[in-house]
Amino acid sequence: MAANKLGIASEDTWPFRFETTGLLNEYDKEITYTVGTNDRPPNAAYDEARGFHAVEYCRLDPDHTTEAEQLLRLEEKAAVGVITLARLKQSLAEGYPVSFAFWYYKEIPWATDSKPEDDYISLREIPDDKRHTKHVPAKDWEGHSVIAVGFDPSRNRVLCQNSWGPYSKSARFWMPYSWIRDFEATKDFWMLRLLDQSPLETANKRADALPEPSSHVALSDPKAWTVTPVFGAGKVALGYGALTVAPAVGDRSAHVVWTGANRSVVDIYRYGLDAWSSFTVRSDSTAAAARSAVAAVVPSPGRLHVVWIAPDGAVNGEFIHQRDPVAYVPTEVAPAGSAEPGAGLAAVSRHEGAVDVWWVTPNGSIEWANRLVGDAGEGKWTRNTLCPAGSAAPKASLAAVADEPDSPVLFWVGPDRTVQVARYYPGKGKWERESFAKPYTPAEETRIAVASSGPGDVQAFWLTATGQVRGLAWSRELGGWEDQRVLDLEESSIDRPRARVDSGLAAVHVGDSGVHVVYVAADNSVHGLRRGDGGAWVVYHIAEAGSVSAGTPVGAFTYKYDKVGELSIVVASPDERVAILTRKTAAR
Q: What superfamily would CATH give domain 208-586?
């Protein structure tokens, strides 16, 4: 596709223009024509398009060949239409427009069954004698391509974006669901996602105070939550692992680290009750690969260690000593070719001064590096292979936690969509690994989230392909792993919506209320899960529909300073800026 190869330019840079001829067609409509359809776009359009590549696209319906039209029975064609409509509605609900082609019957006027309160005109239903019939172009039918941009389930219709200008009297119109379900009436449904944006921007490290909070995320309960938008630090890359949080030792500071849409690595931080500040950790050619995961730990007070995967597969990092002046010490955890760009990355500090990092290699093995970090950022990395080739899915998410000193626990998704768990036992001097298959099956693109209340407690969570939240819990009392059906739904509902599998998932321990799990629903609302009084998981609502970007990463952390306690949720707002949603909790 041209959009994937060359990119996309805006309407302002490459405008759509048409002119009238003064002649009338058979419907007494003025004939128009498009200006410069086959002309080369201006150079400015090529320059702008380089920063906007649609690198992911997929077709929602099967190919409508002549053979298919002849071989498929009517009920089989109807089944294809039902599946196509369901996929179309899912893509639109997730925020992705869909282009498609349709045949329209010449005798069906555009002045239709619309009601006075309708904003746009609507196609009429296809006449009964024309349903599921092969079309003869230029005789009874004419073809057209449009973009689906929304749907109305209350009236069973899809909102389409047109390109006919004044000829159609509106840039948009409604199309009944029956057109989508008709095998012969519509075809070529393509969903497009704009993932990659501008190239790297060079920038000096900075630590500028961020703006005062303002409300640009719609909260379900504004009295309980406040919003801090992060305007000064650029856009966040959309991807489940593109953001992480690193509360510091002693709970007196917090860091939120993410990879930007321009592939830079950015950190915002706060000490005590001061305002959030930001700086760019890395923005040169050694910065993050597109949609790279990022991990950050605080091995000791005032010291931050950030790691990420570079475009060449190197695992790079930076040690940051928060003193006056701030010291930045770059480090290479593993050389080029070591990691699979776009796959998971995890890091923990299993005791003060220690940093452990895990990543997925191109052949599917799990690599592990660790070191002790000195005050000046010195310390040699020791690398080992934790699991052999073929142990992890190509883009597997990784998550790690250390509930006991020197005993980290690592989770990841296997190539057979199993949940893999490995724990290091210092007394034995070795790792022990377990595998969990059905009914634990995770979605291939799921983020794994972990939390711990302290020694002897580990909980992990992930998303299934149907948008349910599953998990595992381990405690000394259990003596093993226990299944957790956190959001186990037969059907989605307003009060208990299913999760988007392409967005982030976070887990955090919140004092006496236990572990909270945060997820994003299909309508881009934000929800939390916690155990109720009876032990069952209950849903609470954090932000309303449309509050976050489709594909947003999610982070969660608690913050305590003196007698002030806070629960904070980190997301990408609709304009792809980082936003921090905070509510007060009991500090202990």
A: Fucose-specific lectin (2.120.10.70)
